[in-house]
Amino acid sequence: MKSANTVVLEKKSLDDAVAIAKKGTHCGMCRIDFLGTGLCPSGKKHGYLAYWPQGRMELVKHLKEGKIKPTEKLVDIANSCTLCGICDKQCNFATQLRPEKVAKALKEYVNSLDKSEFQKVPEDDIVKGLREIVGNEWATNDPIIIASYVRSIIPTNVELNFYVVMPDTTEQVSKIIKFANKHNIPFLPRGGGTALSIATPTVLSNAITLEHGIVIDLLRLKKLEIHPENSTAVVGAGITAFEVQKAAYKHKLRVNVAEAGAHYCSNIATTGIVTTWGNKYGCFADNFIDLTIVDNDGNIKNHRDMDIPNPYATENVFSNISLSPSYIITEVTAKLFPVFDDEEAVLVPFDNLEDALDMVLKLGKRGVGLSVAVLSYKYLAEFICPTPKIAEDFEDICKNYMKLRYVVDVICDKDDKKIVEGMAEYTIDQNFMRTLILGSPKLASLKDSEFMKILSEEEDPLRAIFAGPMRKHFEKGLDASPEQMSKVYDTDLQDFFKKVYSKPEMTDVVWLHAFRILPSRLMRQQMTMGPGGAVWAGDKKHILKWVNMFAEVGDKYNLEHALGFISPLDNGKFIYIEYDYFYNHNDPDVANRISKALLETTEKSLVLGQIFTLINYLFKGIHRKEHVLYPLREGLTKEEQTMFREVLHSVLGEFEEW
Amino acid sequence: MVKFLSEEWIEKGRTYMLEKLDPEKDMKNITTSVQGIIEHVPPNDTTMNFYIELKDGRLNEFKVNTGDIFEGKEAIYEIRGNYGTYKDILEGKIGTAMALLKNRLKLKGSKMEALKIIKQLDSLIESLRKITDEFEE
């Protein structure tokens, strides 16, 4: 019999499980109830990542590779899964994966183990001290639990010399930090972990992950109060964007949130809130009335305190090199905005970026719309298509046949809709979007069809589809229905997805924009790295030059790339751009090229000037747009560019320059 | 065995920097001063600091003191971090720039000016790394 200590796993089911697990990206969608299925019972009860589907997927990779030895905890984790199938439904919607197969394989593997050979995990003084703060259940040094945090806060190339602690109050966070400092142990908070998982395969990994120490998992900070009487919400650091939005919507109110699985507070501590709703609702610190933070010395502070230094200001120069938050936000009081009865989506298709940009700049300056953005064909395809293959074909059709390369995507009331329609020759309305969403499998199947060839030969294919006589036939031909959509899923899930797509909100573009459940599809079985930032809106040539720079660097490193979105900020004075590179996170070669692209585009953005780049705000904390955007910095001088390279060398050692 | 922040550490550090660091080649003839503040020093959870002054690239002063101010000295740069961070740096587990990046060290003084001499600061830390091999536990 094989020793448990050598942990060589030979079961085919586990091999299959590892194959599934490797495609996982820690998108976090298995930790929110976005399909009305309820939450994973095991994860909900035990909290630690290892008990959630995404954590189990991480775990089996480590077991397979022999990087960790089984402990008693592994039995508990495997047995805690009831095989209820919720994870398959959630994950299939977002990523097309089947995590329940991983859970089953883990159960089989655990049953085959000789439990007498399990590794013992003694309670050391550190875990004992942490347990005194949070209770026995919520602090651990068990390597099985720790392994589940690899790739989303722990880098892949270190020994698992860590602790995980799950506080449920700000006071506990404070005590943990004081305890960590006293024992000279580094610590880092974890929210949804998505940003960390995107960066982990790249050059950013060492800078933003924890190489040893205490992972402070903020999931249990679950305070959530909606105060309709003053349009505010009090949100704890364990609350996701989806959860706060759901609570706000019950009162016909809306909060400006990041992607559905992102923790609301944790996200703002690291990247700030910049969304397509930013022109109307505000950006960076605009949405926050008060924050409760714990600083790196363990002091609890509130932004409303009169005697603290200005928390909203930062240096917006590249020399502000810190890439880790200098505090942990445990609670925030956020602004809520009214949801209007006459809100609608209207999209304007374009075959070129310059015209789309023109329209967004005009809408931004005039303050038209609640959410305003230019989206590329890639975003559109990934968002609305249920599978990667359908998205790929849909993308091809948009780009090469329909010439639908960009859309100006506006959520607005009826009055603003008229303005948008007045500015465009033709538009895509909510009904047509519903057709495109539910008809996306059929549309994708038309790739290389005679119809598409004829369409592509039209002088203006967009007009032919959206304003010409073909529109009716096109809508009818797509056979858009929940039933048709459900057929793209595995047989055992088809009934479920027929019901899902029958729900009005699943094809309601306004709801989808507000709840942001679709961006996770950008991370289905691959990673997306989206550099960008804010730029002055007054110089269109400068904006286009910046976008083209990202495209050229993408081509140079042979990366799949496309514009993500462009949105106006601050009454159209600025625009925010995200440009996306897509990559296989299991391929070190492509991760290396992504790293080079990231460094090169950062330097080139800084040299171009008048740009507030990712490096200026990534993990910097909450800052007012007035402090960081006014004025935007001039481009780097030659001397500063040399310094920038020297900093990179100090951090990275030798690296191949561009 | 040379213990971090001990008398012997100062002596060895001073000798090493004077003998091994070329004022022109390694230190670019810079004139600057750095105060490293070390918090949570075991076993009594105290604060200590060291002060390094360079004149024309040559070591002028290297001293250690308790507390977080050095009487009569005002360094151009203050680098503050806990004992564990300094230990990780001196054991080569993490670089100074990386510690700044990770917010483990906090820099007071002009960041832009500090980045101009980051190579020379790295050389100073490297010198201390070479002579330090014992820490409080």
Keywords:
heterodimer; A: about 650 residues; alpha+beta; Fumarate Reductase Iron-sulfur Protein, Chain B, domain 2; nine-stranded antiparallel beta sheet; five-stranded antiparallel beta sheet; 31 helices; 20 strands; globular; disordered N terminus; B: about 140 residues; Nonspecific Lipid-transfer Protein, Chain A; five-stranded mixed beta sheet; 5 helices; about 30% strand
Gap from first CA to last CA of chain A: 53 Å
Total count of helical runs of at least 4 residues of chain B? 5
Q: Name the CATH homologous superfamily of chain B.
A: SCP2 sterol-binding domain
- Broad structural category of chain A: alpha+beta
CATH architecture assignment of chain B? 2-Layer Sandwich
Average pLDDT across residues of chain A? 93
Could you list the spans of chain B in which at least 5 consecutive residues all have pLDDT below 50? Answer: none
Tally of separate domains of chain B:
1
Rg calculated over all Cα atoms of chain B: 14 Å
The biggest sheet of chain A amounts to: 9 strands, antiparallel
Give Rg of chain A in angstroms: 25 Å
Strand percentage of chain A lies at 15-25%
Shape of chain B: globular
Seen as an oligomer or otherwise, the chain set is heterodimer
Explain this structure to me?
- The complex is a heterodimer of chains A (658) and B (137).
- Among the domains of chain A are: 1-120, Fumarate Reductase Iron-sulfur Protein, Chain B, domain 2 (Orthogonal Bundle); 350-525, no CATH class.
- Mean pLDDT of chain A is 93; it is low at 3-7.
- In chain A, helix 4 (72-80) packs across helix 6 and helix 7 runs antiparallel to helix 9.
- The longest helix of chain A is centred in the C-terminal third of the chain and has 21 residues, at 588-608.
- The radius of gyration of chain A is 25 Å and the shape is globular.
- Helix content of chain A is 43%, strand content 15%.
- In chain A, the strands form four sheets. In chain A, strands 12, 13, 14, 15, 16, 17, 18, 19 and 20 form a nine-stranded antiparallel β-sheet that branches. A five-stranded antiparallel β-sheet of chain A has the order 5-6-10-8-9, with helices on both faces. Chain A has a four-stranded mixed β-sheet with strand order 1-2-4-3.
- Chain A is of the alpha+beta class and 658 residues long.
- Chain B is an alpha+beta fold.
- Chain B has a single domain (7-131), classed as Nonspecific Lipid-transfer Protein, Chain A, CATH 3.30.1050.10.
- Chain B contains five helices and five strands, in the order αββββααβαα.
- Chain B has a five-stranded mixed β-sheet with strand order 3-2-1-4-5.
- In chain B, a hairpin with a 2-residue loop joins strand 2 (46-55) and strand 3.
- In chain B, helix 1 crosses helix 5 (118-131).
- The longest helix of chain B is centred in the N-terminal third of the chain and has 14 residues, at 7-20.
- Chain B is globular and about 40 Å long.
- Chain A binds chain B through residues 181-186, 206-208, 211, 296, 315, 317, 319-326, 640, 643, 646-647, 650-651, and chain B through 39-40, 42, 45, 82-85, 87-88, 93-98, 100-104, 106, 111-112, 114-116, 118-119, 122.
